[in-house]
Amino acid sequence: MVVESRLIGPVRVVGAGLLGTSVGLGLTARGIDVILADASPTHVSIAVDLGAGRRATAGDAPQLIVVATPPDVTASVVAAELAAFPDAIVTDVASVKLAVLAELADLGADLSRYIGSHPMAGRERGGPLGGRADLFVGRPWVVAAHDAISYQRAGAIDDLILDLGATLVEMTPEQHDAGVALISHVPQVISSLMARRFIDAPSAAVNLAGQGVRDVTRVAASDPDLWVQILGANAAPVRDILVAYRDDLDRFIGALDDPEAPGARRRVAEELAGGNVGVARLPGKHGTDKRFTTLTVMVDDRPGQLARLLAEIGEIGVNLEDLRLEHAPGIQVGLAEIAVLPETVEHLTTELAARGWRIAG
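^ that's the sequence the OP posted. Answer follows.
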């Protein structure tokens, strides 16, 4: 069944990688005519085969153009699209907004038809094969407003975001770049540097890795070439945060130089407690500040066992708020970390144990 769209279309998507293909898949599911373009004919062919849209033809007149190209060419591609389609509104989905806007101004581009945006969504797997129609559902999508475009003209971008199931967030380009430096770009740097410590680490140490270190280093598997571009375009805010982070590390290292010195343990405790306070500020499920309690259940690594656990949690009448699965090293057992409301933990623990499940914590 085709769901009614707010957009009229056609929509031209330039860049048939992960984000561009996902935009195409989401819009075609709503019946929008999506036109795909990419410097790589192979990417276009794959995206077309996946159902993300069609190839460009002479006479195309898009209502909206979405530029989903690497950051170092985003501004030049946006400028070319503005010139080629004088009746279209153009947005880009690059993860840095101020540098693109400034470069477009230097190029003399028509900023009255351009507004940058950025969906806070992605996957470690890139390219068109990583595309998903639901990639943006429930995710924040920033619109980086500027004075040269009217609210009415920018309405097509709002329609795009709502059609794809994302949550619209309005920010200035400066606010956006400072925000992503803190919650995306610096974590990428820290994760990569942490994972780099494993290169020469003894195998005996690496084999001890559990879910904690995997969580910290998950994004270290991201594409280095892409991140060189992103960090270069947002260097100043990232540098400022890293300098402050260096000061934090220096204080921590100073306390560990002599753990028995007066005040040293207090300093360590205060730094760790500060982490607790920071984590508590992160939005929880559905953007709320509601917190959950975790229950760890041992699940045999056999077909159907995880599905049985989830079904029985439903039968018990407890809502599953979140789930994370970790594999125990050396044995055929998975550790399912079940997040539930605190008031349901005792009841759920009793009922699962009565059904034969082993509770690990």
